[in-house]
Amino acid sequence: MIRVVKIGGNVVDNPEALAAFVREFSMMPGPKILVHGGGKEATRLSGALGIKTTMIDGRRVTDEATIDVVTMVYAGLVNKRVVAKLQACGVNAVGLSGADGHVITATRRSPEPVDYGFVGDIATDGVNVGFVEMLLGNGLIPVFCAITYDGDGHLLNCNADSVASAVATAVSEIDDTELIYCFEKPGVLADAGDDHSVIPHITPELYQTLKQTGVVSGGMIPKIDNAFKSISNGVKRVVIKEASALNNETQGTVMSL
Q1: What angle do CA 60, 161, 205 make, to 5 degrees?
Q2: Which residues of 218-236 are buried (b: 16+ CB within 10 A; e: fewer)?
Q3: Which helix (H) or strand (E) holds 130?
Q4: What's the CATH number of domain 2-186+237-251, 3.20.20.70, 3.40.50.1980, 3.40.1160.10, 3.50.30.10?
């Protein structure tokens, strides 16, 4: 089985959490792929350079100045920091943006109804699965950031959850694939204030009920939407869990049809 693991800012922004995650990831058996978000580094660097950060509905507007910043941070600083730490744990990782090896192409999102600038959406055939298979076959562990490109020389900023979903769906053509979304909670919670209230298993039917009752709301909705989209397109199963429990098979919320 191929495992695709996605980590976000709660890991990449915290040196102790990142070190703990890297140890867990290095112990995960079999072929694996890592996808990471950018955390707060891009906002910090933008401020230092005098570039205004604009967010709409929690998403970064990526104008010409900002695409330069996020590329430097996501594909550069954060990606190479993660790769270096993986190498120190004996994981032969290779850091990638979508432009490297023509591995992930995307199309620039329409400016209507909201112009997010150089933000991309990945098509169903946007992942070069042959290139990924070649890396895995040679014992290399791909580490993807959220920077893709359009095939015509323009870099695009994508949502890291969507990158993970697209990569997992693509590699499911090679072998059974599990997608693991790591975030700050031990799973999807029945009570947001109680970390012990993890819902162990969510089906599409239960998901609709959880949304209607408000148990699942806000940023968790697109994450679970991505999960079920992945499953309907060939991914064996999706798990949402804490990064520190990566190899704990009893923790987390499993999504399946």
Answers
A1: 120
A2: eebeebbebbbebbeeebb
A3: helix 129-137
A4: 3.40.1160.10
Domain ranges for the chain: 2-186+237-251
d(CA 9, CA 169): 23
Residue 208 and residue 71: Cα distance in Å, rounded? 37
pLDDT band at 62 (very low <50, low <70, confident <90, very high): very high
DSSP bridge pairs for 204: none
Q: Structure tokens of 254? A: 């499993």
Is residue 131 very low, low, confident or very high in pLDDT (cuts 50, 70, 90)? very high
Q: Give me the mean pLDDT over the 89-115 stretch.
A: 96
Strands 155-157, 253-255: pairing is unpaired
Give one DSSP letter per residue of 181-232, joined into a string.
Answer: EEESSSS-BSSTT-TT-B--EE-HHHHHHHHHTTSS-TTHHHHHHHHHHHHH
Torsion angle defined by CA atoms of residues 183, 74, 106 and 154, in that order, rounded to the nearest 10 degrees: 170
